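Wait, mind explaining this?

_____
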Amino acid sequence: MYSERPTLVVGFHGCDKRLRDRIVSHEERMSGSRNAYDWLGHGIYFWDNDHERALEFAKEQWSRGKIEEPAVLGAYIDLGNCLDLLDHHNLYSLKEVYEELKYTYGKVGNPLPANKSVGRAGDLLLRNLDCAVINLYHELRHKNGMTPYDSVRGVFWEGKPLYPGTEMKEKNHIQLCVRNMNCIKCFFIPREKEANGFF
């Protein structure tokens, strides 16, 4: 009943500059991710109101040779019917779906997908289990004739601790996964911050 998010949010997507420009000029349509390790299931990913983190991600992709020129694509997004993983009820429902997934895999004798860390940081960057659980949740809702979720929103603790003794990490963020393209109201090229923006 309370899953509708009536306000627009600003999302940022780290990508190649040429792709950003082609999407903003409507020469290319943005496509969703369908990797087995997607953190919030299949869809189009944005950093929730975090331009700097999106740019950092694009620069990481550039350093690995995956893109030619790092850039950030902005979007105004209406989350619509949102599977918000900051909501207690949704977390409980997801736990039930995990049990269903576990039962299904066990019945045929297959091991469950697992979340895996990459590199020395120990962060679980390959979220195969989470992706499978969330995708199954969407599938079960569809089979039961329930309203599909337009988006998924989740918080993630990532990176090294900010300082000794804290749980806060250097790369904490809220991530958005848009499943319904109609939720994206417009794309834009973010402005650079001016040193003195006052008149």
User: Anything to note?
Assistant: The beta strands are 4-16, 44-48, 70-84, 115-116, 126-127, 151-156, 173-178, 184-188. Residues 4-188 form one domain. The chain is about 30% helix and 25% strand.
